[in-house]
Amino acid sequence: MSLSDFELEVMQLLWELEEATAPQLHKLIAQRRPVKYTTVKTIIDRLEKKAALQRSRTEGRTIFYAPLTVKKDVRGSLLKDFINKVFLGKSQPLAAHILEEEELSIDDIEYLEKLLKERKQELQ
Amino acid sequence: MSLSDFELEVMQLLWELEEATAPQLHKLIAQRRPVKYTTVKTIIDRLEKKAALQRSRTEGRTIFYAPLTVKKDVRGSLLKDFINKVFLGKSQPLAAHILEEEELSIDDIEYLEKLLKERKQELQ
DNA sequence: CTTGCATAACTACAAATGTAGATATATGCT
DNA sequence: AGCATATATCTACATTTGTAGTTATGCAAG
């Protein structure tokens, strides 16, 4: 099951919030860029049809939605697609690209070094 | 300028081959999955309109196409978008995800360790 | 108990995308 | 020279996506 950019944006908020209403989600996204309530609601409806989220409870006639998909799973599958499409299926060039070009702090780097050391030990 | 999945697939081949004809590209892609010549040619035409590639020369009435965009630039901009959308703009969680979950050989790991060491030295 | 409003539900539409048919035409072969 | 064929060009169409208008309706306040 694939998510569009906008659908993913809504899911990111839901993963963060655990649950949320359409008006809440609209207000959050409207802080970033101008978008009408009905637009956000349409995206929520589509996510519901795709079973990426579900209605968790209501308050008055306002509906709360909660994620049905797990962030790590979705990220993992998006990453796999991305590596296939953009880096011809090879993770190493992507990792190299990030470690060389993307912004990383000293702490980030030391944490990543630790991960690599652990990874290497598993392989030996 | 954004590229669709199919457009990117054609560009990946062009970056590899330096230049190619529509029939060549069609044959290569058709090895992976069934697709008609005209479909591939449509994508090439769209890439030409987007100025991602250009006609480099002809042989008879067959046209050779060459990339106008640079692989590293396109990858960089796609990666930036991807990090923004999927990892909320933070490279470190993506790097961590890859170093933990994706397949890497000992050689890969040692190369990445070297990159990190160099990166750290630049920062200090 | 009515009514205005917030929210939900439904409908619409243009642009991008994957897909390919229909048509035109230059070239190389007989 | 005429013709078959490969290639190019043009047109079309369904689906997905972002975007939002229109309509329906339940609830809260007076």
TrEMBL record, chains A, B:
Keywords: DNA-binding, Transcription, Transcription regulation. InterPro entries: BlaI_family (IPR005650), WH-like_DNA-bd_sf (IPR036388), WH_DNA-bd_sf (IPR036390). Belongs to the BlaI transcriptional regulatory family. It comes from the Bacteria. It comes from Pseudidiomarina atlantica. GO terms for molecular function: DNA binding. The lineage of its organism: Bacteria, Pseudomonadati, Pseudomonadota, Gammaproteobacteria, Alteromonadales. It holds the Pfam family Penicillinase_R. This is BlaI family transcriptional regulator.
